[in-house]
């Protein structure tokens, strides 16, 4: 797991680089999860690096490891698709994140 803090002044919440694999599936489905790489995480969302770009608005169930505790499990929604920065990927906004996971993510992003 690789992590570093990112502070560019343009985000709603502090974010931090986090190189882990998330398990992602369409919200509510029983299909096998798709392993996708997270590059950054905050208490409000994450950036997924992938050449497979999912459509904006797609609702997902997401699980990913966070140092020092249980995996974070939450629903999310693709809010942005980016293939112009040199690293293709998607912005994921967390929906319905548990308060304990939100606090863990906030502490991780600001450490």
CATH topology name, in short, is Thrombin, subunit H
- Strand share of the residues? over 45%
- Classify the secondary structure makeup into a structural class: mainly beta
Helix count equals 1
Short structural description:
This protein has 111 residues and is mainly beta.
Description:
The protein has 111 residues and is mostly beta strands. The chain has a single domain (2-110), classed as predicted glycosyltransferase like domains (Thrombin, subunit H, Beta Barrel), CATH 2.40.10. 11% of the residues lie in helices and 50% in strands. The chain contains 1 helix and 7 strands. It has one helix at 99-110; strands at 2-6, 15-26, 34-42, 45-49, 59-64, 72-82, 89-95. Strands 2-3-4-7-6-5 form a 6-stranded antiparallel β-barrel. The longest helix is centred in the last third of the chain and has 12 residues, at 99-110. The chain is globular. The two termini are 15 Å apart. Mean pLDDT is 86; it is low at 1-11.
């Amino acid at each position: 797991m690789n992590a570093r803090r990112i502070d560019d002044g343009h985000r709603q919440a502090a974010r931090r680089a986090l190189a882990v694999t998330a398990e992602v599936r369409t919200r509510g489905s029983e299909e096998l999860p798709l392993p996708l790489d997270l590059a950054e995480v905050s208490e409000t969302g994450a950036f997924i690096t992938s050449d497979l770009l999912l459509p904006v608005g797609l609702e997902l169930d997401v699980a990913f490891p966070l140092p020092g505790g249980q995996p974070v499990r939450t629903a999310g929604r693709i809010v942005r698709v980016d293939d112009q920065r040199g690293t293709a990927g998607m912005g994921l906004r967390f929906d319905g994140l548990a308060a304990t996971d939100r606090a863990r993510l906030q502490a991780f992003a600001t450490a």
